[in-house]
Amino acid sequence: MTAAIVPTPASAWRQYYALTKPRVVQLIVFCALIGMVLAVPGVPSLAQLTLGLWACVGIWLVAGAAAAFNCLVEKTIDAKMKRTAWRPTAKGELSDQQALLFSGALCAVGSAVLYVWVNPLTMWLTFATFVGYAVVYTVILKPLTPQNIVIGGASGAMPPVLGWAAMTGQVGPEALILFLIIFLWTPPHFWALALYRVEDYRKSGLPMLPVTHGNAFTRLQILLYTFVLMASCLMPFVYGMSSWLYLSVAVVLSLGFIGYAWALNRQYSDELARKTFRFSLIHLSALFAALLVDHYLF
To answer: Which pairs from 134-140 meet CB under 8 Å and 24+ separation?
Structure first.
């Protein structure tokens, strides 16, 4: 009989940190930061910088809590998929109780930070986003409908709204435009991943679009969404939030995404689906970076 392996404190912290899905949370905080910056005319004051820092901390903690709760709920599904089988909950390295307590603690601390040092509106919007992702999307939508990522994408599109609310105490039309961009970006981004991971999703039993409607239908949906996404990406310029600098970057990035989707729709390969997925990450990051640069230059 072999002795049980007790994890060191360092390895235990790495396991907890992995539950927060750091790369995803980094993108969430980045998008929230863009919302904060765009909400402040000119160079922010020291007080505004401090406010933004507290907002980033609170949003990071609550987003990490949602990710940890997602890992807990989907541990059985994660264990069946190569992409997620390494997660501590899927491998049994962390118990359900440990994951739940960790998620609850992060959510409580993050909510307190937002309520005390930012404002109640941001706290409630962030908590609603937690519920939308961790409960509505993870528990209800994801296992029931192939439109899960479309409806559930509303939670993932909230970060700029949270950032805007943190700095202004309200939700303006500019924040809703940023929300719309991420909301329409999410389906083609995630479906490109689902195309080359389709066997994983089939084994897991999740009704992802490539599983329920097939490869060809999913590719067409990706293409159609990229056209609608391009229209939304032009809205910051049309509304007057940005100048020609942002517009030129948005057009190039949108045409690039459409080009990948067009090629994918014409002739499928796993490698092209991977490239489309990777470009979608570049698309969103570069688009928001262009908004940031444009904000300070013009």
So the answer is: 134/65, 134/66, 134/69, 134/70, 134/73, 134/103, 138/69, 138/70, 138/73, 138/74, 139/73
Residue where the block lists tokens 């040092």: 117
* Structure-block tokens of residue 290: 């262009």
Q: What 3-state DSSP class applies to 146?
A: coil
- 125 contacts: CB under 8 Å, gap ≥ 6: 158, 161, 162, 165, 171
**Whole-number Cα distances in Å, 270 to 78, 135, 215, 219:** 21, 31, 11, 12
Backbone Cα Rg of the chain: 20
pTM, to two decimals: 0.90
* Cα distance between the two ends of the chain: 70
pLDDT band at 153 (very low <50, low <70, confident <90, very high): confident
Which DSSP string corresponds to 62-120? HHHHHHHHHHHHTHHHHHH-TTTTTSHHHHTSS-HHHHHHHHHHHHHHHHHHHHHHT-H
The yes-or-no verdict on residue 183 having pLDDT over 60 is yes
Contact 279, 226 (CB under 8 A): no
Tokens of 142: 């994801």
Distance of CA 272 to the CA centre of its chain: 22
